[in-house]
Amino acid sequence: MPTASSCPKYGRRRHPDPLTRAWFTLLALSITSALLTMLPIPPAFLGGGILILALAKCRIILARYLDLAISPAWLRGFTVVLTGFVGVIFALYLF
Protein backbone atom coordinates (compact mmCIF):
# COMPACT_ATOMS: atom_id res chain seq x y z
CA MET A 1 0.00 0.00 0.00
CA PRO A 2 1.50 3.34 -1.01
CA THR A 3 2.07 5.76 1.80
CA ALA A 4 1.73 9.48 1.62
CA SER A 5 4.95 11.38 1.37
CA SER A 6 6.02 13.44 4.35
CA CYS A 7 6.76 16.30 1.99
CA PRO A 8 3.49 17.78 0.64
CA LYS A 9 5.31 19.06 -2.43
CA TYR A 10 5.87 15.52 -3.71
CA GLY A 11 2.97 13.70 -2.06
CA ARG A 12 0.28 14.61 -4.58
CA ARG A 13 0.04 15.44 -8.20
CA ARG A 14 0.72 19.08 -8.85
CA HIS A 15 -1.41 21.07 -11.24
CA PRO A 16 0.26 23.58 -13.52
CA ASP A 17 0.69 27.09 -12.23
CA PRO A 18 -2.12 29.45 -13.34
CA LEU A 19 0.42 31.55 -15.23
CA THR A 20 1.66 28.49 -17.07
CA ARG A 21 -1.89 27.52 -17.98
CA ALA A 22 -2.53 31.10 -19.14
CA TRP A 23 0.62 30.98 -21.27
CA PHE A 24 -0.45 27.72 -22.91
CA THR A 25 -3.92 29.14 -23.52
CA LEU A 26 -2.42 32.25 -25.13
CA LEU A 27 -0.23 30.03 -27.26
CA ALA A 28 -3.24 27.97 -28.37
CA LEU A 29 -5.24 31.10 -29.21
CA SER A 30 -2.32 32.48 -31.22
CA ILE A 31 -2.01 29.26 -33.19
CA THR A 32 -5.78 29.24 -33.73
CA SER A 33 -5.73 32.76 -35.12
CA ALA A 34 -2.84 31.83 -37.43
CA LEU A 35 -4.73 28.78 -38.65
CA LEU A 36 -7.86 30.86 -39.10
CA THR A 37 -6.08 32.96 -41.73
CA MET A 38 -5.52 29.85 -43.84
CA LEU A 39 -9.21 28.99 -44.12
CA PRO A 40 -11.10 30.04 -47.25
CA ILE A 41 -13.67 32.25 -45.53
CA PRO A 42 -14.92 35.75 -46.38
CA PRO A 43 -12.72 38.59 -45.08
CA ALA A 44 -15.46 39.93 -42.79
CA PHE A 45 -15.69 36.64 -40.91
CA LEU A 46 -11.92 36.35 -40.82
CA GLY A 47 -11.52 39.81 -39.33
CA GLY A 48 -14.27 39.17 -36.80
CA GLY A 49 -12.76 35.85 -35.77
CA ILE A 50 -9.31 37.32 -35.29
CA LEU A 51 -10.72 40.20 -33.25
CA ILE A 52 -12.69 37.81 -31.02
CA LEU A 53 -9.58 35.72 -30.42
CA ALA A 54 -7.61 38.89 -29.64
CA LEU A 55 -10.29 39.93 -27.15
CA ALA A 56 -10.06 36.52 -25.46
CA LYS A 57 -6.28 36.89 -25.26
CA CYS A 58 -6.64 40.38 -23.74
CA ARG A 59 -8.98 39.05 -21.09
CA ILE A 60 -6.57 36.23 -20.18
CA ILE A 61 -3.70 38.67 -19.89
CA LEU A 62 -5.75 41.01 -17.72
CA ALA A 63 -7.06 38.24 -15.49
CA ARG A 64 -3.90 36.17 -14.99
CA TYR A 65 -0.85 38.32 -15.64
CA LEU A 66 -2.23 41.55 -14.18
CA ASP A 67 -4.08 39.69 -11.38
CA LEU A 68 -7.46 41.24 -12.12
CA ALA A 69 -9.07 37.86 -11.49
CA ILE A 70 -9.10 38.78 -7.80
CA SER A 71 -11.01 41.98 -8.63
CA PRO A 72 -13.99 41.03 -10.81
CA ALA A 73 -15.33 44.58 -11.04
CA TRP A 74 -12.11 45.89 -12.58
CA LEU A 75 -11.89 42.91 -14.90
CA ARG A 76 -15.49 43.44 -16.01
CA GLY A 77 -14.84 47.15 -16.57
CA PHE A 78 -11.76 46.53 -18.70
CA THR A 79 -13.63 43.83 -20.61
CA VAL A 80 -16.50 46.21 -21.41
CA VAL A 81 -14.10 48.89 -22.63
CA LEU A 82 -12.09 46.43 -24.72
CA THR A 83 -15.25 44.92 -26.19
CA GLY A 84 -16.38 48.40 -27.23
CA PHE A 85 -12.96 49.05 -28.73
CA VAL A 86 -13.09 45.76 -30.67
CA GLY A 87 -16.57 46.69 -31.90
CA VAL A 88 -15.32 50.03 -33.19
CA ILE A 89 -12.33 48.40 -34.88
CA PHE A 90 -14.59 45.80 -36.52
CA ALA A 91 -17.01 48.48 -37.72
CA LEU A 92 -14.13 50.47 -39.22
CA TYR A 93 -12.83 47.26 -40.83
CA LEU A 94 -16.19 46.62 -42.50
CA PHE A 95 -16.48 50.13 -43.94
Helix segment count? 4
Structural class: mainly alpha
Share of helix among residues? over 70%
Task: Give the overall shape.
Answer: flat
Instruction: Indicate the radius of gyration in whole angstroms.
Output: 19 Å
Sequence of secondary-structure elements: HHHH
**What is the percentage of strand-forming residues?**
under 5%
> Can you summarize the main beta sheet?
none
Low-confidence stretches: none
Per DSSP E runs of 2 or more residues, the count of β-strands stands at 0
Residue-averaged pLDDT: 89
The span between the termini is 69 Å
Task: Characterise this structure.
- This protein is mainly alpha-helical and 95 residues long.
- Helices cover 73% and strands 0% of the residues.
- It contains four helices and no strands.
- It has helices at residues 8-11, 18-36, 43-65, 72-94.
- Helix 2 (18-36) runs antiparallel to helix 3.
- It is flat and about 65 Å long.
- The chain starts with 7 loop residues before the first helix and ends with a helix.
Topology:
Layout (H helix, E strand, L loop, with lengths): L7 H4 L6 H19 L6 H23 L6 H23 L1
Helix pairs in contact: 2-3, 3-4
